[in-house]
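Backbone geometry tokens:
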Amino acid sequence: MAALHSAAMSDPRTESEPKSEPKTPRVAGRFRGKGPERDFDPHAARDALMPLLRAIEAVSDETPEPLAVDVMEPLLRQNPRPGGGFFSRSHLIAGFRAFAAEETFRFGEARFRRRVQRRPVRTQSGVTPLTVLTKPFPCPGKCIFCPNDLRMPKSYLSDEPGAQRAANNRFDPYLQTWNRLAAFDATGHPVDKVEMIVLGGTWSFYPEAYQVWFIQRCLEAMNDFGAGRDARNDFDPGTPDFEELDVEVHGDEFDRNPYNRRVTEFLKERQNGEMLLEHEGSDWVALAAAQEANETAGARCVGLVLETRPDHVDEAEVMRLRKLGATKVQLGVQSLDDEILEKNRRGHGLAETRIAFDLLRRAGFKLHVHWMANLLGATPESDRRDFPKLFEDEAFRPDELKLYPCSLVETAELMGPWKRGEWKPYTDEELLEVVSDALPRVPRYCRVTRVIRDISSDDIVVGNKRTNFRQIAEKEIARRGESLVEIRHREIRGEAFEGDALQMVETEYSSGGSREVFLELVTEADRIVGFLRLSLPKEASFVEELGQHALVRELHVYGGSVRLGADPLGAAQHRGLGARLLERAAVVSTEEGYETLSVISAIGTRDYYRKQGFVDGDLYQHRSIAADD
């Protein structure tokens, strides 16, 4: 491991600068952020709680798990909480843990948690997604459709659920991560395999020391939570309360976006003239230590997602993203029409988007792009022409996609064009036509993660306010007799399957400088259980360590997140399916003349790949396949 970190963590932009000791956050007040209820004493409610636990235990094994609302609700009502109200899922789990040592239950905690788990869809994709937000900070973008909520990092709204959680924790990375892990754990979700998603403005525009510190603190929270440590009282985040900021912003009343100026003034006013607090910075050495500890932690980062703009991606930035531990990049493409991009003051054109795709893919990153319908200057007909380019043009072909129709919010500069009659939202029929035409065009190697952004209807001035628009579009697509093959639509999730009956399906496509092979294990009904993204480059990468190696860009097994070392109980994970996909990737790579198979491993998956024969490099892991044939 020493070789891995000593080489990987040197900063390409500040190579000659001396390394400093990691900064210790100042200890101050007792601000612990907002997490799940922590002061519940199961023993004080034992007389009421035990009958409820027994009733849940007595539900027939034939009943699907997690128990549906119509099964759980009568049990909760029959066994109310003393003093009024009902027991929550976290109360039930806490009670089971507290009484298991002295009571005999017919199954263990893992089974009980599965019975009472809320919103299991969150973790049915195989990992637990955990979203954190950076603090409000200036952004280089001038997009006219972008919200300007001064209490939030650029483009986010305070009413969005993830944004509310971030604000409740003063945007502190440790508090956000620790409290979110606690919330997942309290509601029955496993937290040992976490995909960390960092959102907020333009990540690449934040100071490097802040970026390093932010990721370090997220990892330290995971390390602490996994070890049963609660260090939330050890420091005060010190971040000012942005709710104190005068938030009145009317998008139709300004010629120059006031977001950057007002956020800068507020930060400097509350932070002694500085944009960052003294402790909001760290170095690569401290980050490396947190990464190494996380490799075997109880809560591991098995994926790190960062978001940025195409015009902020160059070779040095790609290397920095990789050193931070990132494996996936969310990239705001928005449109593939230069004229539309210019009208919306996006700040970059198609040329920059092509470069960003090429560099990120050559470095092995998964590409999660945003595409927006109904932008200023677009029409339903132009959007229907624009969307297919994402997959027809081999320079793009993203791995994941968010399809975001433009919604008008009061703080966006788009308010002006709307009031002047220069822009109008699509009608429900027009939007349905655009989305219903787009989704069937998404190939089987891409996952559509969202169709509508999670914006409160109260914040939308005009535009679609239906959050279930994806389901509406899917019904329309079915009515037309068309079908969907994108990944999310085909995920196995909690369904049972026979491992021996799975078929290996291989889809090949070109992507600029490489040939991509999408390997997937599917059921007879084409439900996807696991997949691997294999990149076969045509020439050597600018990443010296990769050379011209075959490259695994992603390995994922679905079927519900299963705790490390736990009995899979029919789930897809831990059946050796990942190893099966890796072996096929090695065979394909060898047949094509490659001698080394490399992988862009996440921090928490490094140990897994070592067990599969990979050895540590600087930023990647590698396996010789020259003799595998």
Q: What stands out?
A: The longest strand covers residues 528-537. The mean pLDDT is 88. The first helix runs from residue 2 to 8.
